Amino acid sequence: MSYRSRYRISGNEMRIFVFVTFLLVTSLLPLISFDGYKIVRHTTSHLGSQGAPFAWVMNITFVLLGFTAILVTWRTKIWYHRVWGGVFGISLCFTGLFRHAPLVDGITTIVWQDTWHSIFATTTGIGFTLLAAGHTMMSRRGAQRWVALIMTTVAIVIPIAMFGIPEIMGLLQRVMFISAFWWLFFYMKPPSELSV
Question: Cα–Cα distance between 19 and 86 in angstroms, integer?
Fold first, then answer.
């Protein structure tokens, strides 16, 4: 066995690594982020915001998630999944490159960064919603269709709830992200008859 093949990471191992990294970063980084950060109230974007301690850790995690989403959806060999998975993944990468406005006192806001962060956060949500909705329509197997429908509903309802109940938006966003990435990385099985 060659050195290269011995240390090659499989697609499943990569998905597990990225998913666990996301769970660890969003659970542990709040402990060393800015004073007053609360998991229930503050989002993952706040962890990566301008001036937040160790913001780069959260932002690299966004890029890892986005890159993995692109790979997962590209491997489906279904152009619908590739396009909307690509929109989702690329947008998520850019939410990590452009930072949310600061929540730390004394930090001057770089307005254009916050604006682009908001734009890409929005297109991330749109991309995922259309990916899940399309998967719902394409899937003929019952469980695949119903779980995709649940994910579509989650992707629509939770962002609305986050605006309506800002006191728990951090908790709501984590529920949405954990369920979305679990579905995309480990559960979603595209219909093989539609692959190119």
Answer: 18
